């Protein structure tokens, strides 16, 4: 093996660290809340079971995270809009505002980093990241929906 997978592992670990670090004024969400809010925002109300399946996590883990998010006013439990028995979580206005604030901070920060890059390099990097994530999702069987407002998105 040529060490490429080692380099990718190390660089994605650093990328996750850089991206997940909250910055003042950017919503200051825990990384789990940011991910859960992002998913619910894209898909609409979701139950504990649906979130557990989507994230491939135990329902007890999702329950702890959503309970903390409810206490923080980021989500609320509602009856299933489709008439099912399970209660679902919907993002509150506060949750949406904080998610949008944090996402905007991430986009600004990333934009500043790639500001001096050749536009073709930026586009190639984005395309390769999307391909990488799509391949992971295909392999694990846990696709992540892309929002329609993101280039390459289809939600």
TrEMBL record:
TM ranges: none
Domain HTH marR-type: 1-134
Pfam families reported for this sequence: MarR (PF01047)
InterPro entries: ArsR-like_HTH, HTH-type_Bedaq_tolerance, HTH_MarR-typ, WH-like_DNA-bd_sf, WH_DNA-bd_sf
CDD domains per the UniProt record, alphabetical: HTH_ARSR
Descriptive protein name: MarR family winged helix-turn-helix transcriptional regulator
Native organism: Rhodococcus gannanensis
């Amino acid at each position: 093996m040529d060490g490429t997978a080692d380099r990718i592992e190390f660089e994605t670990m650093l990328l996750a660290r850089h991206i997940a670090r909250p910055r003042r004024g950017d919503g200051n969400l825990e990384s789990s809340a940011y991910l859960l809010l992002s998913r619910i925002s894209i898909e609409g109300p979701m139950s504990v079971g649906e979130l557990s399946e989507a994230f491939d996590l135990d329902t007890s883990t999702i329950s702890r995270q959503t309970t903390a998010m409810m206490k923080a006013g980021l989500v609320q439990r509602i009856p299933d809009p489709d008439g099912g028995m399970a209660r679902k979580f919907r993002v509150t206005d506060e949750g949406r505002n904080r998610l949008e604030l944090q996402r905007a901070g991430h986009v600004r920060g990333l934009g500043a980093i790639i500001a001096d890059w050749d536009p073709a390099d930026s586009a190639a990097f984005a395309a390769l990241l999307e391909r990488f994530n799509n391949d992971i999702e295909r392999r694990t069987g846990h696709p992540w929906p892309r929002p329609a407002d993101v280039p390459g998105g289809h939600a």
